[in-house]
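Thread: Modeling a multi-component assembly for a lab meeting

Hi all, long-time lurker, first post. My supervisor asked me to bring a structural picture of a complex we are working on to next week's group meeting, and I have zero experience with this. I have the sequence lines for every component (643 residues in total). Could someone generate the structure of the whole assembly? Inputs are pasted exactly as I received them:
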Amino acid sequence: MRALTWHGEQDVRVEDVPRPQIVNPTDAIIEVTATAICGSDLHLYHGRVPSMQEGDVLGHEPMGEVIEVGDEVETLEVGDRVVVPFTISCGSCWFCENDLYSLCDNSNPNAEIAREVMGHSPAGLFGYSHMLGGYAGGQAEYLRVPYADVGPIKIESDLSDEEVLFLSDIFPTGYMAAENADIEPADTVAVWGCGPVGQFAIQSAQMMGADRVIAIDRVPERLEMAREHGDAVPIDYSEEDVYHRLMELTANRGPDSCIDAVGTDAHGTGLVDATDRMKRSVKLEDDRPYVLREAIRCCRKGGTLSVPGVYVGRMDNFPFGPLMNKALTVKTGQTHVQRYLGPLLERIEEGEIDPSFVVTHEASLEDGPDLYRKFNDKEDDCIKVVLRP
Amino acid sequence: MATRSQDTTRARVGEGQGREESGDGGVLGPQAKRAALAGVGLALLVRGVRRRSLRGIGTALAGGWLLTRAIRSGNGKREARGGAGRRGSSAGSAAVSRTISVGKSADELYEAWRDPETFARVMSHVADVTPSANDRHHWTVHTPYGRAVSWETRIVEDDPGQIVRWATPGDAVVSHEGAVRFREAAGGRGTEMTLTVSFDPPGGALGDAVLKRLGMAPEMLVGQALARFKSLVESGEIPTLEGNPSARGEGDLL
Ligand SMILES: [Zn+2]
Ligand SMILES: [Zn+2]
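Re: Modeling a multi-component assembly
Sure thing. I ran the full set together rather than chain by chain. Output:
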């Protein structure tokens, strides 16, 4: 089959790879009809994520048609149309039973490696490094889905692929980020990063009754999208000082909740950012915490910092003192996607939100490498890419 | 940490007989035993490296560990042992121990552990294990040149819902003993299960330096065995990358 594969920094190829097979009795194989490139795929693209190997199949935002099921699959049948969450979860361990699906105890075959590095292993993910499972991803013609009764959600209405595809990651991720922000009715919520996850965080914060949402980015199209679809107040950090602008907007209280939807590849300004870049280039630091530092500085005392952005390792100059003295609450984690699939599909079916607003580019799998580059360079107003294998 | 304060108990010796299948049979002297042990180590090392998988890395590290132990024992060095999760169980041996929580009752876990098919699947990253009569297990590790090293263990303690312990006889090629203990966890969180395993080179001692350098390996094997068992009893299967597609081909590759 054809698949997008990782070969190192800024080297994504489209190649022939073996077709996946049913291995375990609860596996299903899906024929992928639509699959997206995610902002977190760019962390892989930049070689930031450890334990990637040349030839790994990328992608963790797929949907498609079930073409084969294992002997013990009960809820899916051949022909079903499904969206597949990026988190692989067994459904029966303590974490899954407590709705903490991205912390599943059983789905990572390489759990011992993750344990060595992090102390404990989170769930396996599709197409996101060997430490996090090593599972082949969904930017391919076919995908093996383990624990098929636990992950995929059936789409029985006639909604288009673009309307439901983002249930696989970015819609639930933005939603959980807003939920983690503990929003109260009169709250101001600031969102750093207006990529797709930021856009869904903004809209979810509005759904949860935020008084005002402030969107921070430097790409004009993204800020425009946040204003138009998310009714957000835009701040272009390349033109304005974020701290001063936020203090101005909140009478110096600071936003009640701050959401970092950027993660490890944050762009900063000035000398500190230059130092981070230098350290990272010689592997003294894994993550560039520019947004985190700024969010801690800006957040209201006793406020909440919600971090859906992906971080991979260690960072320096983390302002733990300010975090402690301002009594901030930090909530983070990979998304417990399975927890949100049903409720969010319902919101889409009821017309409360149409997630397809983020899509700017559609292409074939063969064009994948070119679109990785375009998306990375923010060329051609590229915000979200959907590929059709 | 409470679990680690439990002593690794020296198993009583059974009556089985270890042997090297392609060797000349019979009881082996210390020299031959050391060679056989090195063979097991080398086999694991080569198998691990050739598989180029993370599981393979664990196997390779374990292989290196055994190999180094064999070489060390040949030099007759005896050094202090130590390190978290390891306890010397007697002269010339070290045990590794790990505990995890499993969401099943102690009785269910005991039953599953005593099921020969389950046991074989759980240990398949270490060796091929087949049951034989009278609570014995036959363990085989294949060496790179078609040779196989095998040994037999016997269950020497068996208390349903509490403990299962097995050991090789004293004159086995590879001296190996293991025990699994079950204890009810607080707050309805299932059962805390501790697996303790040791592989001893006959007449050898484990150097502290070796433990420090490669010591993760045996712990990793124990951790993997526990994780595989937990996955199997909780979710009905063991997570796997078998047949996993990549541009490197198919299967459990890194
Ligand atoms: Zn994603
Ligand atoms: Zn689970």
